[in-house]
Amino acid sequence: ESVSYWAAFGLPALLLLIATTIFWIGRRQYKHTMIGGNPIALVWRVCSVAWKKRKRRGGRPAARSSSWLDGAVPDYGSDTVSDVKRVLQVLKVFLPLPIFWCLFDQQSSRFI
Q1: How far is CA 66 from CA 20, 34, 59, 63, in A?
Q2: To 10 degrees, the CA torsion angle through 95, 99, 101, 105?
Q3: What is the pLDDT of residues 26-53, one digit of tens each?
Q4: 62 — pLDDT class (breaks 50, 70, 90)
């Protein structure tokens, strides 16, 4: 008829405890890599170098199909620049989310 409180919250808590234990037991099999430097500063440096080189070219990309970030490839390499491009694409999706949730939470408020 109805599920008790302990079954509704105790079972998921038990399953989370089991999953955490499994992860903790297997921690020696994980590959631990340390980040070399600050990734946010790296993204900022790549963007600033690319922007400065774009300004020197008169505001247009080097090639017709290239991105404005491709100007930083000689300084930082194509792998780093492509990673920064991916980060900026993800930011287009996730950057508006805090603004959305701030506005959404104002709907239940009486403060005008």
Answers
A1: 45, 32, 13, 5
A2: 170
A3: 999 988 888 788 999 999 999 999 999 8
A4: low
Read off the tokens for 64: 């017709």
**Residues 6+ away with beta carbon under 8 Å from 1:** none
Whole-angstrom distance, CA of residue 111 vs CA of residue 31: 50
* Among 55, 37, 91, 47, residue whose Cα is nearest residue 72: 47
Of 3-7, 76-80, 102-106, the poorest mean pLDDT is in: 3-7
3-state secondary structure of 53: helix
Q: How far apart are CA 106 and CA 11, in angstroms?
A: 35
Q: Look at residues 89, 86, 91, 80 and name the one whose alpha carbon lies nearest to residue 36.
A: 80
Please, are residues 31 and 38 in contact by the beta-carbon 8 Å criterion?
no
